[in-house]
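User: structure tokens for Pectate lyase, please.
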Amino acid sequence: MNRRVVALHALTTVLIATGLAGTAKAATAAAVAAPDGFASVAALGLPGTTGGVAGPTVTVDTTDELLTAIDTVGPMTIQVSGTIAITSKQGVRPNKTIVGLGSSAVITGGGFDFYRSSNVIVRNLTFTNAEDDAVNVGQQSHHIWIDHNTFVRPVDGSIDIVRGADYVTVSWNHFAGTDKSMLIGHSDGAASTDIGHLKASIHHNFFDGSRQRHPRVRFGEPVHVYNNYFRGNELYGVASTENAGVLVEGNYFATVPFPCHSTSGYADSGPGRLVQRANVFVGSGPCEAGGAVVEPRTFYAYTLDAAASVPGLVTGGAGAGRP
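Assistant: Done. Predicted tokens:
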């Protein structure tokens, strides 16, 4: 089950955010759970990912308000109300929690970009029709938690974790018919920036008719892919390439012709290492595995759900507007 310790960002007064298009918004309480996986690990001067805790809470419902809030220096919890249209990929400064209110908060047309940013939570949002990536975690960004979101029709990737990014958790998201769901490692030529980085936990996500990259990994180790529900993925599930180290554990694959690529490489990328254990395969091909991988338990503790229970858990809990 979703084992989380819930912390309430309770407010007793109306907070005014300087510069938010001159509009004061009443901030309502937002419930945001504590992270797990790599986003919870104390490293690089942070105790884990705390987002905007200790800062003000503001509610935004216009493009200008949102863009001003994510560009504000210092901790802040940004509550997104309704549908907000943005373009391209907009930069997010460190120490932010961006959380949708209710079940209908939508970011449409664009996405979020992390460039040397850190300590950010993105939660309970639906991303639609992003003209590039919906979420790009790059350029040494670290401690990013992407949780309980829904991704629909981005032109490029739903989530990219690239260029030396580290300590990222992607949990309880719904990838609804996306094409390039998740890339970890920018290119085959990025060894100098990516080796020793790209540590990521990918768990309890619903890869629902999405085609590929769940994730596609270059160089990163360990990348821990566990308790996800893969359903009807046309091209493949997980690809470990360019000597990446990926643990695929406790997942449920249904009608996935190629659940895993690794020792044969993929496309133009050379082979990677992949360990698979405790997975369920229904109407699916074999998982290509080989080599040894650093155990995630050397970084954090976790409890694995039985793979047979994953479809029920994930369809009941993944995506925006879900508990």
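User: Anything notable?

Assistant: Residues 1-30 have pLDDT under 50 and may be disordered.
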